[in-house]
Amino acid sequence: MREFLIATDSDTEIPYTFADEHHIPVFLMPYTVNGEERLFDLGRNTDFVKFYEELADGADAITSTRPPMDIADFFRDIVRDGKDVLYLSFSSALSGHYDLTQMARTMVLEDYPDARIEIVDTLSISMGAGQIVMYAQKLKEEGKSLDEIKDWVVNNRKYSHAWFSVDDLNYLKKGGRLSSAAAAIGTILDVKPILKINIDGKIVAADKVKGTKKIMKFFLNVIQENVVNPEEQTSYVLHANNMEAALKMKELMEQSFAFREVKIQDVGPVIGCHTGPGVLAVIFMGKEITA
Fold first, then answer.
1. What is the pLDDT of residues 48-66, one digit of tens each?
2. More exposed terminus of the chain, fewer Cβ within 10 Å: N or C?
3. Which of 78, 73, 65 is nearest to 32 (CA)?
4. What separation in angstroms does the CA of 5 have from each of 26, 97, 119, 145?
């Protein structure tokens, strides 16, 4: 059986320390601030605070994809050494990147017909996808085959919960996910939408609440209703230059549930371009997502 690697993109936001330790190749995704294109390196050299301060100061921030040739080069660097690839992509419903990886795969297999490149859509993003990557790597290190891990991902991605709120509704308005009138009213009333990743890998509205305390209460209720075997998993609190709220959310989760560990992470700038500063999110494995 040929050796294989789990690979992914930086929009799954696994910690770079984990990628380094477990030898996971990561394809870096682009974002542009005031005309300057950057690649998100999982925080290795990313100044998260500076990025969100730039957004707060009115910087023009957008995202894009990278061409299939770049992805093909990424795959070639792996298969030319005689290794196969199980590539776990962030949600195809949120970007054209997944389709571009398929094009890149075809290009590489023309040159390396004996290689195997399997691509799976995690149907999530950020650590909603990242925790799937990390579970997959654990299975690899336990001796599972590429096919066994691929099947596990396909069968278990529907249990990865990602719930989040945003602080400034104008970023959602800019992205076309909220009307101008709703954004204006919501800002005045301090009404904040609760969003989630649904079964199709799309971002959808789940509810709306008024104020940070009610957001945290909502998240605790969501975890209570959906979490499975918390003592066997690490959960995540994500934030976008909102450490105070993240620390409080972590404290509440540790008081309320027997998670093995609750970790805090920054929301990366690619995602942050669309959500703005102030994001608060919770990630965990739970009951099957059906809608």
1. 999 999 999 999 999 999 9
2. N
3. 65
4. 11, 20, 12, 11
- For residue 92, what are its two tokens? 């195809």
Distances (CA, A) of 193 to 220, 222, 238, 282: 16, 14, 16, 14
List pLDDT tens digits, range 173-203: 665 544 454 445 455 556 788 889 999 999 8
- Token match 């974002």: residue? 31
- Please tell me the distance from the alpha carbon of residue 284 to that of residue 159, in angstroms, as a whole number: 8
Handedness of CA 253, 255, 258, 263 (dihedral sign): positive
Structure tokens at 164: 């989040």
State the SS3 of 66-117.
CCHHHHHHHHHHHHCCCCEEEEEECCCCCCCHHHHHHHHHHHHHHHCCCCCE
Q: What is the pLDDT of residues 88-138, one digit of tens each?
A: 999 999 999 999 999 999 999 999 999 999 999 999 999 999 999 999 999
Q: Residue ranges of the domains in the chain? A: 4-29+65-157, 159-285
* pLDDT score of 192: 81
Q: What are phi and psi of 199, to 5 degrees?
A: -65, -20
- Kindly report the CATH class assigned to 4-29+65-157: alpha beta
The dihedral sign for the CA sequence 110, 114, 115, 119 = positive
Place of tokens 């925080």: 43
Euclidean distance between CA atoms 8 and 244, whole angstroms? 30
Q: Identify the CATH class of 159-285.
A: alpha beta
Separation between Cα atoms, residue 28 and residue 44, nearest integer Å = 11
**Identity of residue 230:** P
Q: Are strands 30-33 and 4-9 parallel, antiparallel or unpaired?
A: unpaired
